């Protein structure tokens, strides 16, 4: 009777071992499933990141194309303004040559000076609408003084040259000014940011932002409605207000004929 009792623990031990071996693979299978799910998630995240990266690359390509277009248009505008300035210089030089050839008498000088004044007025009228009335008004007063003799023709030569120098300076500097502009049906006082002779932006006292745009043979001040373009112009005014005259600025391009 003792032999069967002695054998029973062995049977129980073997049975327990078999049960353990049957149950043991379950955690391993769960781990494998979890690993597979993790790999699937990672693959999905990688695909999403690749899609976002491709979208970012496309946005960069579009931005680069836009910047290249801006660069070309700025270059064309600068060439046009440079040509206009050179023509004005040539006209002034021609008038000076006429003056020298005609002699120094007032009667000979006066017609040449008046012709040079009219050439400078035409140059101003063809450029940006920056304080046009004031600049033309000064030249008209100067012409009147020449015609009535209150300014001798000999002294008028130096004064006319100073006007030309002022115009050349205006064509180069970036600066802030205040002027009255025609905005739609109203005339309002505005701050204007002038970028050489290429672009003119405005900011009214009530916060409206915009730019000068060529329309036909003239110019018009047009309000900007796009939020990103408004932010660009606002940043320009902030920079010029801090005396930052040079740097990289992304600015809205005028719809017709102006520059960025």
* Oligomeric state of this protein: single chain
Computed over alpha carbons, the radius of gyration is: 39 Å
Q: How far from one another are the termini?
A: 109 Å
Count the E strands: 5
Outline type: elongated
Major sheet: size, sense and barrel closure?
5 strands, antiparallel
Task: State the helix count.
Answer: 6
Helix content: 55-70%
Order of helices and strands: HHHHHEEEEEH
Content of β-strand? 15-25%
- Category by helix and strand content: alpha+beta
- Would you identify the regions where 5 or more consecutive residues have pLDDT less than 50? 11-24, 256-260
Output the strand order for the largest sheet: 1-2-3-4-5
Q: Let me know the average pLDDT.
A: 80
What would the keywords be for this entry?
single chain; 260 residues; five-stranded antiparallel beta sheet; 66% helix; disordered C terminus; DUF3450 domain-containing protein; signal
Architecture overview:
The protein contains 6 helices and 5 strands. It is an alpha+beta fold. The chain has a domain at 174-255. The N and C termini lie far apart (109 Å). Residues 11-24 and 256-260 have low confidence and may be disordered. This is DUF3450 domain-containing protein. It comes from Aquimonas voraii. Residues 32-105 form a coiled coil. Pfam families: DUF3450. Residues 1-28 form the signal peptide.
């Amino acid at each position: 009777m003792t032999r069967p009792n002695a054998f029973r623990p062995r049977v129980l031990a073997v049975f327990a071992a078999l049960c353990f071996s049957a149950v043991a693979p379950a955690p391993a299978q769960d781990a494998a499933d979890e690993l597979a799910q993790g790999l699937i998630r990672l693959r999905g995240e990688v695909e999403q990141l690749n899609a976002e990266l491709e979208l970012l690359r496309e946005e960069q390509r579009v931005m680069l194309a836009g910047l290249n277009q801006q660069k070309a248009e700025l270059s064309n505008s600068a060439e046009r303004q440079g040509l206009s300035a050179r023509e004005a210089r040539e006209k002034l030089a021609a008038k000076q040559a006429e003056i020298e050839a005609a002699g120094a008498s007032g009667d000979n000088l006066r017609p040449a000076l008046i012709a040079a004044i009219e050439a400078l007025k035409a140059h101003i009228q063809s450029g940006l609408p920056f304080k046009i009335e004031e600049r033309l008004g000064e030249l008209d007063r100067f012409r009147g003084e020449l015609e009535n003799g209150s300014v001798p023709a000999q002294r008028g030569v130096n004064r006319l040259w100073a006007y030309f120098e002022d115009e050349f300076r205006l064509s180069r500097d970036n600066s802030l000014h205040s002027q009255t502009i025609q905005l739609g049906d109203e005339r309002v006082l505005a701050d204007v940011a002038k970028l050489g002779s290429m672009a003119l932006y405005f900011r009214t006292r009530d916060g409206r932002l915009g730019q000068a745009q060529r329309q036909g043979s003239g110019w018009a001040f047009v309000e900007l409605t796009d939020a990103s373009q408004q932010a660009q112009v606002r940043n320009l005014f902030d920079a010029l207000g801090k005396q930052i005259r040079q740097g990289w600025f992304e600015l809205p391009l005028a719809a017709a004929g102006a520059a960025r």
